[in-house]
Amino acid sequence: MKKVEHLEYSRKNVWEQANHELVQQIMAFAEDYKTFISSAKTERACVRQIIRRAQAAGFQPVDRYERLQPGDRVYITAKEKIAVLAVIGRQDWQKGIRLIGSHTDVPRLDLKPHPLYQEAGLAFFKTHYYGGIKKYQWLTIPLALHGVVCLADGQRVEISIGDRPGDPVFTITDLLPHLAKDQMVKKMTEAVAGEQLNLLIGGQPRQDSDKENAVKMNILALLHEEYGITEEDFISAELEAVPAGAACDVGLDRSMVGAYGQDDRVCVYTSLQALLETKEPACTAVALFVDKEEIGSTGNTGMQGRFLTNALAEIGCRLAPQFNELSLYRMLAQSRALSADVTAALDPNFDGVLEKLNAARLGGGVVITKYTGARGKYHTNDANAEYVALLRNLLNRQQITWQTGELGKVDQGGGGTIAHMMAELGMEVIDCGVALLSMHAPLEIASKADIYECYRAYKAFFND
């Protein structure tokens, strides 16, 4: 009788296959990743990091070129929140590009246009949460404040408080358990209301001010002295309250990274590094970094905007003498893309929400996800079988450890990515990224091994 063991699919674990040299590479790669994500607390800061690293690697603004040649390295950015980087390939770009798209925005607390008030001798900022959060997770943790304020005279002021040594931090208070009888019987979705997510920012009154507003006036005086801000300037501000502190190692073996915003800046970093190391690929390699994914990809910096097609047109007209809109869409129809986004990892503490046979595991390598969506696959891309096979075979050829994943049991819930919006342009698209524990929490957990395999997968894709 013939042996049939080779017919069965078996999961792999990166750590189990890694020799000492590979472990060292994984650990070293994670160190730079932690530096990146610790400095990219907002979408603007994230894009600044992207462009700074791109410039150091020889990328130039596309408008500096009249004609592009194989090996040229260009970038296009807008609003400081969205960017495209490209390395021009050897082949005619009409045969298609290799595109990896990730998103720079993450769940957070935005300050309202009129945020500052005083009550009970304390000063607070009112916030409006952004993206899908569990509101109770944001109570009683150290928070930092980052963003920009546009003053009445047109000057723009950068704000960064809470992440430098010696900085004060902010927090949102919670009710003590001794008095929380009514709170504790509420549903978790109702225990903390959105209007209760008020940032505690001060408690010292200004001596020369009316007692009713003395603490508020002291805060305004401090802000004006340091930044030139008046209360009206908050109306033209983008200020975000985010968890304070740097990314850290998790576990005695230091095998994991704990950080805020790994959804989706882990894919931002890995796709960026993969492109920076791509020299002269066969097909033009493009990395896309978009905003607003967590709230539906809307606006002129979201995936539903025209930034990507406009950016590709800027590149195309410098490559093809007879470039027109039809040639752009023909090129897109020949292109292959990865929607670089994270997925849920199996958590033994909450394993009832995932179907174990199809759930991703930490340490199992990069995750390919054929479809996301909710329940009946609503709002998903659902990659074609032929394209799944192409990616699977590429990863196997390059000996990259990979796994498949789903975002929960069929009727449990779900979520979406930018994959279906990319596919609407005609490209073949599949989701491909890192599995996380505690996704959307102030501290998310990723395996260093998965981060490294994700980078290797993206690099192989760009150079295929």
UniProtKB/TrEMBL annotation:
Record has Protease as a keyword: yes
Pfam families: Peptidase_M18 (PF02127)
EC top class named in words: hydrolase
GO biological process terms held by the UniProt record: proteolysis
Cellular component GO terms held in the UniProt record: cytoplasm
Sample GO molecular function, one term: aminopeptidase activity
Keyword Transmembrane in record: no
Chain ranges passing through the membrane: none
Required co-factors: Zn(2+)
EC number: 3.4.11.-
Keywords for the protein's UniProt record, in alphabetical order: Aminopeptidase, Hydrolase, Metal-binding, Metalloprotease, Protease, Zinc
NCBIfam families: PRK02256.1 (NF002600)
Family according to the record: Belongs to the peptidase M18 family.
PANTHER family linked to this entry: ASPARTYL AMINOPEPTIDASE, M18 FAMILY AMINOPEPTIDASE 1-RELATED
UniProt-recorded name of the protein: M18 family aminopeptidase
